[in-house]
Design a protein that fits this description.
Distance between the termini: 101 Å
Low-confidence stretches: 1-49, 294-300
CATH architecture of one domain: Sandwich
CATH class of one domain: Mainly Beta
Strand order of the largest sheet: 11-12-13-14-15-16-17-18-19-20
Number of helices: 0
Strand content: 35-45%
CATH topology of one domain: Jelly Rolls
């Protein structure tokens, strides 16, 4: 047994005469310490048999360090014990790399008690019982993983500072979702985003102080201070710097289902949409505008008479329609305009644009006799500015073999393809004819209408 000064545990030790020497393989030193007794093996410093073990006075292994020629570095009781041919791995902690460890993995790192790796190039820090990961000092956490409430992840000082039962939340930035406790499925990206939200769910705030004061749910704010003044309102969308805030002026905090797009745009009543601020003077909407129900007031894009209101107060018609009235029209075997006694189905769109043109007629037998079927041809036609039938604006209805029949044959509705014009005075009407007139009686059009709806300015 070699002599060793109390508390010295390295391979360079003194003998009983005070001379330094190097420990031989498997030689041990026992320090005269109070329990636990330390036994150090010289094999730690032998490249072929590396190990340093710390054993208590009951000869129970407490800690060990192993450095192998295969590139594995192992610190802790049974660290890396589950490896067989795995190389270039690092395990720190009692039981790390032991039970459940992938035996042949390469280039992995496991830090923590009982942590194991199972695939190549994997890094795992902490085990399933760790409740918080922090980078920083004291209570000023710079980065934290918060698995105590399921599926939450945050990065930033004081993010999720008091979270309790909320699930599926994501926070990034200083004080991001700081006061959140029970809310679910929130996303806050940016310093102080959703900072005061306690229990609101399904909010998305992107940008510094976005949705800062929100306490309800289903709101979206994108931009610095976007939606900052929304408090108890729900289902609002704000996009743009200061949208839904405007420096703390004008935004109603309790509105629901509103949308504000543009710098400092604010909404003041439920179900309101505002695109652009007072400085915008040109707005373009491309494509086809579709509505599920006709608007009912002039504050909307189209008013109740089919007029689009422009920012300068002028108007632009959208709908053009005419219903026939008076004496009905009797069909002949020559294509001609359908003319009624008082009002004929004629429209003249006063605005250039692209339109959806449609026609409707009701065909009547009036004591009519046909010994063979006959076609009625109906056509939507422009009668001026180079007269022409509208593209795909013709439909055909077949009359049946009848004898002195009186009654409705059919009501026909049809549309032409999109009709584009640069004119302001096109005259559009319905032309009709029957292939052969009846041998007795007549065939009439008892009702007719033509409509144009602007679909693109």
């Amino acid at each position: 047994m070699a002599c060793c000064p109390r508390g010295v545990y390295h391979p360079f030790v003194t003998d009983c005469n005070g001379n330094f020497r190097v420990l031989r393989n498997d030689e041990t030193i026992r320090a005269a310490l109070a329990p636990p007794v330390i036994i150090a093996s010289a094999t730690l410093f032998d490249i072929n048999l590396p190990a340093l073990q710390i054993i208590d006075d009951n000869n129970v292994l407490q800690f060990e360090i192993r450095i192998s020629t295969s590139g594995n570095t192992l610190l802790g009781k049974q660290a890396g014990a589950g490896l067989t041919t795995g190389i270039d791995n690092t395990f720190i902690g009692n039981g790390s790399g032991d039970v459940g460890q992938g035996a042949t993995v390469t280039n992995t790192i496991g830090i923590g008690k009982d942590v194991v790796t199972t695939v190549n190039h994997e890094i795992i820090i902490g085990n399933s019982t760790n409740t918080k990961f922090s980078a920083g000092t004291g209570s000023t956490f710079k980065a934290r993983l918060v698995p105590t409430a399921d599926e939450n992840l945050c990065l930033g000082e004081n993010a999720f500072l008091v979270i309790t039962t909320g699930v599926s939340n994501l926070a990034y930035g200083f004080n991001s979702s700081r006061q959140l406790t029970e809310g679910n499925s929130n996303v806050s990206l940016g310093a102080q985003a959703l900072q005061t939200n306690l229990v609101g769910s399904q909010n998305v705030g992107v940008g510094r102080r976005s949705l800062f004061n929100v306490h309800a749910g289903q709101n979206v704010g994108v931009g610095t201070n976007a939606g900052r003044d929304i408090n108890l309102g729900i289902a609002n969308i704000f996009i743009g710097d200061g949208a839904g805030y405007n420096g703390g002026t004008g935004q109603v905090s309790t509105v629901d289902n509103t949308m504000g797009i543009g710098q400092n745009v604010v909404t003041t009543v439920d179900d309101q949409i505002i695109i652009g601020n007072a400085s915008h003077d040109n707005t373009y909407l491309r494509g086809i505008l579709e509505v599920t129900a006709e608007p009912t007031n002039e504050d909307q894009l189209w008013d109740d008479v089919g007029v689009v209101r422009l920012s300068d107060g002028s108007t632009r018609d959208r709908f053009f329609e005419e219903y026939a009235a008076g004496t009905v029209y009797t069909l002949t075997n020559t294509a001609a305009a359908v003319v009624f006694g008082t009002t004929s189905p004629i429209i003249s769109p006063s605005e250039p644009g692209t339109y959806r043109i449609s026609g409707s007629v009701t065909i009547e037998y009036v004591g009519a006799t046909f010994v063979a079927t006959q076609d009625v041809t109906l056509t939507l036609r422009r009668t001026n500015n180079t007269p022409a039938n509208l593209a795909d604006g013709t439909t055909i209805y077949k009359l049946q073999i009848v004898t002195t029949l009186t009654g409705t044959a059919a009501t026909i509705y049809w549309e032409a393809s999109q009709y584009a014009t640069t004119n302001t005075d096109d005259s559009l009407t319905i032309f009709a004819d029957v292939a052969a007139t009846p041998s007795a009686g007549s065939v009439t059009i008892s009702a007719a209408s033509i409509k144009a709806e602007m679909i693109l300015l």
